[in-house]
Amino acid sequence: AAGEDESIRDVFANTFGDRSDWGKRALKPPLILGISGSKTYDFIWRVVNGEFPVSSLLDRAEETDNNGDDSVFQIEQLERIYILLVGTNNLGGGMLPEPTLKGMDAACRAILQLHEKHFPNTPAAMLFSELLPRKDDFRAVKMCPPRCKNVEKLVPYKSFMPGINKVNRALPDLLNGLREDFKNSHIILLSANNDASKVETNKQNSKANHSYTQVINCGEEMFAFDDINESDVYMPDRLHPNAEGYKLWSRCLKKGLDVILTR
Known about the structure:
This protein is an alpha/beta fold. It has helices spanning 4-16, 21-25, 40-51, 88-92, 97-118, 137-142, 161-181, 228-234, 243-261, and strands spanning 81-84, 124-129, 185-191, 199-201, 214-217.
């Protein structure tokens, strides 16, 4: 729709920009690195080759005492929060769920490794979003050939949702692996689970003085609608949220930010 791009920018400016409550608390305005059609591998190339911001925002002249344990997540040293939504373009380009997951894992690791390189001994926080549902079934059908459910009979996949669901089910284990490798971090999974009021902690991986993966269930704030007509209100092309859709999703992001900053 005409003016939709400007409306989407206004949503994020009002929610997280200079004139928002979050913006007044932030040291700098949000830096957005997403581009149309980006897949995990070109995102990794971009951040490794110059797009990752390396300037420190906090004065670190006085180091906070952490008893020599760099695995302690210290909120007072937190200077940036990474928000990652990546992977759906891999599936939309014909990639299967398993390599898509490997790409998502590599994208997370690239960010956290760059953080460790440029900001050693300082905590990192990350909000990692599940893949949003996509109902653009005609694109899945058009991928055959070559990406077919049955190549010999040229039977196409009828939907992206089985692949998206397979990826999303694997994300808790993926993030638990990141937590083990980057203990000086706080990683939260934003989920489309319908119990929107529930915040789950992975008890197996929660240990004293260590960060752990939490799951925030956002339900309809992550477009978990059973009614396709209701979904179309927020995703009219059945793939991309419109301004009202991003306004809805921003509520889920704010829940994750609240958990990080009130820890």
